[in-house]
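Handoff note, outgoing to incoming analyst
You'll be picking up this chain. Sequence as last confirmed:
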Amino acid sequence: MSCGKKFDSGSCVIDILKDIVDAQNDVIHECMTSCEQSIADLLGDTGGGSGFDTVPVILYCKDGCKPFKGYGSKRSGDECEIKGSFFFRVKSVDDDGCAVVELLFADHHHGNVGGTDESSDGYHHHHRFDPNSPADQSCRNLRASGICITVDLNCFCHVTCLPATAAL
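Most recent structure output, in case you need it:
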């Protein structure tokens, strides 16, 4: 296969990638992106009712293509602790491209998502959760936090969907 023989886009890289896609499509007939698969799993298209209610997403900022980390706080009595997360549940999207997203956290603490834990000594222990990358967060047993932020979707260039889950 030589560059540019089948396609003539003016870019050797584009032409090669198009050739690869064509060849792969001749071999593999079913291909779903992670988002398509997660949505199908959420809807139970892969074998009945799924019990899932959320497709967690990671958003990537246009400038520098870095994963977006949202911050927020949920008041608990006199406490006001800021928490950060790279994982979100989309709550709503308006016609202007603004979305309300909810921060998701792994449920390591029996429902006390990113907040206060009661240890075996009966006392509450606070812990800060501020990951440096999505890889620092577990995506297993994600739970809704009740912490919502509003984002401008025009500021993002990429979205990664994680496997559908029961987050609520």
